[in-house]
């Protein structure tokens, strides 16, 4: 252990010494030449020269000679230190040390720091400058060597230093006054630094002396010389300052920073120090003060006051020491060439300094935990300024000279991100910098403004006192602050003659409008209702229209293009200019829709803009620009443009689908808004998927465009085809009894009037038949042009028709569209669809269907693999699928179509249902991971008439029962808006199922209730209390005897009603007590409605029982005359599980004639006490039983019970139950002292931590027996 401590101490001292050595001011003279093989390995070579007259030559084996001192010579040297000429010996030592590590040999041969200090002690003239300087110089070298190589001498050296500080502290302090020579101050500071580094104790001693210096003395010592930097002791003063941080002790640092002016005198001159010094000082301050958890924020604020922060801030403009700046004293031509004249080495040093400055200022001015910043919950609206100190720094940054430096922009942006309460004040303060000027400073300030706007979301996370609307208003005021509204969104900027000025101004506006769009999204995600969001958007639109109407300015910027004077700064690229201009148009129209209707005459120039007149070449950026221009034209067009006008745009977008992701969304928007998909917008997803699957295929594109043209030219014929198909679908629905619904589907959708989050008009049942006019147009196009199509066209047709078919409920209606077509390419599809229309041979036909389906799609494709798993896969593992959102939904509809149609035909066996459920859940989860809005997708499946019709939780599992799939999908609805609306038809279906089941025979009912999914259906459907009351009424009014499964349902529904305000009718209340299975749930209900207890038939509750029911217990709670209790005890006198809980519930001790309960049950009570664990009736009623024995038992009974407790004490577990019974008995016999002595003995065994709680309980009981004293 001792060796380990010595090793750690040596390691720490060596580390400290290396840090000191790396400082540029650690020694008196230059560092010695590099070590040779003849020299020993020393970490410090500071003025160490052997005395010539003590040298001797020792011959080595190879004939060479080396300098060495023997022990005798060292003894003579140490003795000479006690002589009268000791000063001359030290001076000779200091002058001649150059080539050898004499200090180490001195310590190895019995020397010490005390020998050196004793020279000063023996001197009569202790203020002799020569003596003091010589002693301190050698002492410093000894200290350094002890710390680096002799840890065992540290204790004795520390005692010597203490003696030195106590005896000569005044002399040392006098060496630091202004009138003494440079050499004396330098030696004193270096010696003090070495002493402070030696140990924590010595650092304390030196710190006391250090802090006793006046501010004027510190300023002198830390100041730079006006004449020569060689005459300044500043670097040695900093050396001493840093020595206090070497130990990392918080009490030392606190003493240092509480000394007024200490930090300030150091930071004041850092601008003229070399890079190494600056980085060392800033790193020390950051590590030991700013990042320290022990330095409180108040102390940090006093330490890093305004002046200190401004001194550190000025270091961003550091260009080297003062005397090295003569070469840079010249007038710069403009603000771009200042950095260019610096040498490469100065630039590297400048970067290191700026990095250090940036690191400490970011912590101080942006970190709420470690820095000097505070969070203002009111975001500056309270009038109380929380961050005045930080604001003083921002006011200094406002000066133009700082904005040439890239770090300043980042610092200011992060400050305002951490302190949004300062955004408005600093924006108003910096208004002059935002005035449009073609300069680097202006460009930097504009970039800073964009970053500030981008980071404004912090307002939402730090403002718990403000509501959502107040936060949004604050952000609006910040986004459209004075610089934006008065300087950027003006003619001076957007119509400036320099294109770069226009470009940057437009970029800032784009950031503003984009932030408003993000604000809308954030408000929606934060729980803002749709009405509130609409009102807020209207308010913003009105504000922008009245105060920021820049439509004409943007149009002028569009017309100006890149024309204008080019000087100072270069013009932006044409593609970038028009790209950001189109982006700002789109963002502006999105947040200010009034412009679209009120300024169309101004926007005509935008509508007629010709991109080809600006760009002759075609590349990816030009294509993206074209796509954005089409999107812009959609804003300016009517809601549903004539399809013939959209055809050129569609053609261009089809050609760009493969290269421009934005083209997909715009094409989808055009198709969705057109009249051909007005009644079937979901079909657009299928078309987009199929077009993207064969992107840029000229044959597929031509087929699509030809079909589109046919819709335009032959719309009446196509609409006639669709009308005839709908008639076929309705006829099919009326003819098939298994599809005919028992209830009106429109009445199933009962929406909650309290739900504000869902637009009820959007929630509709899936239509029986619904295709767009574009699909029949494809059939007509194929018939007119029956030429051989490519492989890609065949794939396109197969995917398109099959996926649209899978979205239909009517098979025959869809088949009628293809029935009369003889096109070869549709033959396989017709065969596949026709097989769904015929009668099936159950168990066989679906295999044939699977085989025909897989012929349409390529083997090993995702579609065929999913279908293969659904029909014939025996393994439960799902196939590996890499899916996008569009394909996932198409596969979901495909799987659901197969399962629902198999159920309709009665051929959906358990294996297919199980695999289908796994597939549907997997696909739904993949969709919900990709999209934020999961409600519409759930609706499309759950609001399907087939699924609702085949939801039969009261029936045994059959091949047409889809209850398991429904329940699995309902589980996915948790947490989404509109869940109640989706579940409404299934609850109605449940009621219908219950009515049907009640009309069957009892045997059939019992079979029905063997299903293990029934109660899960009740739980997941979250039956509302109103409907729960109706279901209870329906069940209880049946004339047949209600069996156990129905009672379980009633019991569950009673619990639902108990948590609501619903009240059951008197007739129902009178019937419920007839069934003992319902007593507990009924008791829960009656506790909320005690006025209905009088309706209970008491005779039903006093009969013989196995265990006291909650209903009987409730009745006893409200009894006043005890008649019910007497009857109950008479009928159950031999059953303690009824007698004692009943008497406890009634809170009465009644002597029943001819049957004393205590005598009757005393033996049973004793047996129960010996039972491990105790019966529940004994534990739950032990206090009452003790009271009963005390009040009803005679003296013989009391003694009998006491003797039993004493006899069985060691074997009985000392439980609360035992004590509750024993205490009243020992009390009536006046034997409390005996019971206390019996309780004390178990305490001796309760000595483990686990038994402390039990020990505490026993002590509480003993205290109670003592009368609470």
From TrEMBL:
<dbReference type="GO" id="GO:0000466">
    <property type="term" value="P:maturation of 5.8S rRNA from tricistronic rRNA transcript (SSU-rRNA, 5.8S rRNA, LSU-rRNA)"/>
</dbReference>
<dbReference type="InterPro" id="IPR039844">
    <property type="entry name" value="URB1"/>
</dbReference>
<dbReference type="InterPro" id="IPR021714">
    <property type="entry name" value="URB1_N"/>
</dbReference>
<feature type="compositionally biased region" description="Basic and acidic residues">
    <location>
        <begin position="1"/>
        <end position="16"/>
    </location>
</feature>
<dbReference type="Pfam" id="PF11707">
    <property type="entry name" value="Npa1"/>
</dbReference>
<dbReference type="GO" id="GO:0000463">
    <property type="term" value="P:maturation of LSU-rRNA from tricistronic rRNA transcript (SSU-rRNA, 5.8S rRNA, LSU-rRNA)"/>
</dbReference>
<feature type="compositionally biased region" description="Basic and acidic residues">
    <location>
        <begin position="26"/>
        <end position="36"/>
    </location>
</feature>
<dbReference type="InterPro" id="IPR016024">
    <property type="entry name" value="ARM-type_fold"/>
</dbReference>
<dbReference type="GO" id="GO:0005730">
    <property type="term" value="C:nucleolus"/>
</dbReference>
<protein>
    <recommendedName>
        <fullName>URB1 N-terminal domain-containing protein</fullName>
    </recommendedName>
</protein>
<feature type="domain" description="URB1 N-terminal">
    <location>
        <begin position="115"/>
        <end position="444"/>
    </location>
</feature>
<feature type="region of interest" description="Disordered">
    <location>
        <begin position="1"/>
        <end position="38"/>
    </location>
</feature>
């Amino acid at each position: 252990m001792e060796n380990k401590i010595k090793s750690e101490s040596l390691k720490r001292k060596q580390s400290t010494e290396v840090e000191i050595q790396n400082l540029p001011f650690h020694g008196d003279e230059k560092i010695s030449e590099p070590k040779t093989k003849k020299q020993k390995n020393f970490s410090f070579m500071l003025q160490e020269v052997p005395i010539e007259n003590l040298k001797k030559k020792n011959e080595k084996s190879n004939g060479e000679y080396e300098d060495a001192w023997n022990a005798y010579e060292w003894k003579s040297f140490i003795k000479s230190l006690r002589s009268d000429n000791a000063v001359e010996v030290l001076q000779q030592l200091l002058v001649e040390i150059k080539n050898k590590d004499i200090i180490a040999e001195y310590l190895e041969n019995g020397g010490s720091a005390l020998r050196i200090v004793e020279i000063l002690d023996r001197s009569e003239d202790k203020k002799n400058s020569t003596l003091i300087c010589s002693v301190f110089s050698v002492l410093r070298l000894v200290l350094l060597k002890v710390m680096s190589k002799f840890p065992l001498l540290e204790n004795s050296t520390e005692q010597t230093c203490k003696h030195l500080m106590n005896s000569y502290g005044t002399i040392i302090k006098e060496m630091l006054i202004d009138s003494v020579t440079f050499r004396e101050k330098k030696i004193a500071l270096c010696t003090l630094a070495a002493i402070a580094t030696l140990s924590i104790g010595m650092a304390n001693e030196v710190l006391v002396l250090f802090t006793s210096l006046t501010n004027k003395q510190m300023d002198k010592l830390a100041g730079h010389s006006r004449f020569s930097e060689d005459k300044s002791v500043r670097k040695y003063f900093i050396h001493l300052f840093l020595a206090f941080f070497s130990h990392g002790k918080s009490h030392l640092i606190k003493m240092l920073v509480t000394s007024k002016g200490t930090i300030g005198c150091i930071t004041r001159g850092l601008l003229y120090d070399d890079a190494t010094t600056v980085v060392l000082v800033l790193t020390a301050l950051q590590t030991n003060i700013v990042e320290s958890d022990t330095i409180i924020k108040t102390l940090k604020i006093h330490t890093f006051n305004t002046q200190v922060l401004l001194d550190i801030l000025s270091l961003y403009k550091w260009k080297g020491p003062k005397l090295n700046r003569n070469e840079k004293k010249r007038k710069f031509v403009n603000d771009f060439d200042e950095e260019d004249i610096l040498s490469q080495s100065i630039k590297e040093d400048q970067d290191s300094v700026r990095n250090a400055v940036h690191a400490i200022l970011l912590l101080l001015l942006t970190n709420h935990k470690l820095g000097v910043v505070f969070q203002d919950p009111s975001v500056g609206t309270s009038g109380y300024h929380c961050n005045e100190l930080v604001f003083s720094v921002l006011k200094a940054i406002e000066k133009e000279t700082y904005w040439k430096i890239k770090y300043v922009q980042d610092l200011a942006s992060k400050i305002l991100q951490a302190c949004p309460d300062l955004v408005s004040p600093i924006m108003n303060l910096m208004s002059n910098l935002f005035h449009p000027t073609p300069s680097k400073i202006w460009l930097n300030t504009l970039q800073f403004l964009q970053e500030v706007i981008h980071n404004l979301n912090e307002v939402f996370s730090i403002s718990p006192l403000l509501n959502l609307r107040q936060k949004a208003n604050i952000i609006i005021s910040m986004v459209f602050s004075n610089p934006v509204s008065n300087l950027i969104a003006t003619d001076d900027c957007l119509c400036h003659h320099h294109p770069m000025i226009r470009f940057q101004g437009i970029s800032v506006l784009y950031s503003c409008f984009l932030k408003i769009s993000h604000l809308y999204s954030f408000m929606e995600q934060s729980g803002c209702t749709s009405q509130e969001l609409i009102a807020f958007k209207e308010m913003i639109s009105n504000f922008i229209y009245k105060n920021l109407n820049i439509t004409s300015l943007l149009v002028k910027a569009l017309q100006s293009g890149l024309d204008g004077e080019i000087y100072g700064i270069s013009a932006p690229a044409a593609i970038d200019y028009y790209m950001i201009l189109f982006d700002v148009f789109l963002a502006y129209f999105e947040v200010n829709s009034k412009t679209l209707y009120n300024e169309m005459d101004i926007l005509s120039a935008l509508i007629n803009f010709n991109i080809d007149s600006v760009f002759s070449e075609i590349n990816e950026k030009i294509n993206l620009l074209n796509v954005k221009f089409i999107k812009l034209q959609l804003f300016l067009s009517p809601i549903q443009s004539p399809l013939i006008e959209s055809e050129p745009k569609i053609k261009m977008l089809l050609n760009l689908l493969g290269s421009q992701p934005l083209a997909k969304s715009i094409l989808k928007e055009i198709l969705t808004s057109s009249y051909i998909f007005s009644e079937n917008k979901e079909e657009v997803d299928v078309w987009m998927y199929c077009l993207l699957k064969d992107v840029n295929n000229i044959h597929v594109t031509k087929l699509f465009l030809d079909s589109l043209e046919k819709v335009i030219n032959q719309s009446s014929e196509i609409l006639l085809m669709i009308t005839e198909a709908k008639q076929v679908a309705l006829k099919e629905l009326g003819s098939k009894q298994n599809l005919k619904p028992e209830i009106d589907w429109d009445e199933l959708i009962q929406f909650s009037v309290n739900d504000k989050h869902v637009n009820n008009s959007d929630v509709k049942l899936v239509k029986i038949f619904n295709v767009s006019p574009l699909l029949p147009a494809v059939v007509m196009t194929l018939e007119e042009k029956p030429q051989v199509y490519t492989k890609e066209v065949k794939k396109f047709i197969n995917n398109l028709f099959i996926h649209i078919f899978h979205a239909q409920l009517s098979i025959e209606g869809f088949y009628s569209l293809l029935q009369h077509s003889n096109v070869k390419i549709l033959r396989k599809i017709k065969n596949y669809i026709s097989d769904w229309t015929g009668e099936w041979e159950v168990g066989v036909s679906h295999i044939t269907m699977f085989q025909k389906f897989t012929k349409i799609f390529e083997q090993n494709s995702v579609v065929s693999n999913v279908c293969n798993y659904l029909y014939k896969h025996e393994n439960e593992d799902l196939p590996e699928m890499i899916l996008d959102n569009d394909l996932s939904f198409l596969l979901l509809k495909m799987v659901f179509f197969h399962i629902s149609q198999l159920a309709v035909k009665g051929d959906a066996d358990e294996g297919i249902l199980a695999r289908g459920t796994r597939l549907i859940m997997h696909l739904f989860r993949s969709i919900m991971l990709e999209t934020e809005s999961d409600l519409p997708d759930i609706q499309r499946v759950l609001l399907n008439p087939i699924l609702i019709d085949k939801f039969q939780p009261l029936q045994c599992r059959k091949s047409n029962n889809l209850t398991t799939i429904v329940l699995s999908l309902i589980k996915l609805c948790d947490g989404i808006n509109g869940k109640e609306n989706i579940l409404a038809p299934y609850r109605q279906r449940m009621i219908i199922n219950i009515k049907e089941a009640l009309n069957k025979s009892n045997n059939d009912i019992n079979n029905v209730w063997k299903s293990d999914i029934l109660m899960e259906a009740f739980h997941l459907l979250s039956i509302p209390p109103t409907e729960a009351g109706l279901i209870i009424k329906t069940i209880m009014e049946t004339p047949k005897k209600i069996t156990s499964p129905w009672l379980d349902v009633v019991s569950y529904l009673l619990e639902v009603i108990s948590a609501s305000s619903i009240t059951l009718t008197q007739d129902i209340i009178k019937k419920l007590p007839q069934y003992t299975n319902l007593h507990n749930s009924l008791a829960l209900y009656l506790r909320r409605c005690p006025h209905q207890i009088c309706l209970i038939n008491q005779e039903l509750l006093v009969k013989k029982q196995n265990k006291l029911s909650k209903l009987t217990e409730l009745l006893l709670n409200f009894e006043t005359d005890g008649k019910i209790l007497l009857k109950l005890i008479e009928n159950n006198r031999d059953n303690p599980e009824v007698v004692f809980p009943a008497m406890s519930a009634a809170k009465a001790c009644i002597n029943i004639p001819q049957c004393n309960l205590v005598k009757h049950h005393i033996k049973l009570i004793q047996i129960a006490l010996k039972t491990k664990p105790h019966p529940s009736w004994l534990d739950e009623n032990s206090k009452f039983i003790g009271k009963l024995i005390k009040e009803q038992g005679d003296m013989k009974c009391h003694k009998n019970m006491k003797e039993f407790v004493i006899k069985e004490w060691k074997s009985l577990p000392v439980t609360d139950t035992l004590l509750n019974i024993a205490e009243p008995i020992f009390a009536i016999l006046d034997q409390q002292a005996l019971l206390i002595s019996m309780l004390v003995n178990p305490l001796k065994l309760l000595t483990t931590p686990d038994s402390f709680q039990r020990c505490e309980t026993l002590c509480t009981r003993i205290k109670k027996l003592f009368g609470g004293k």
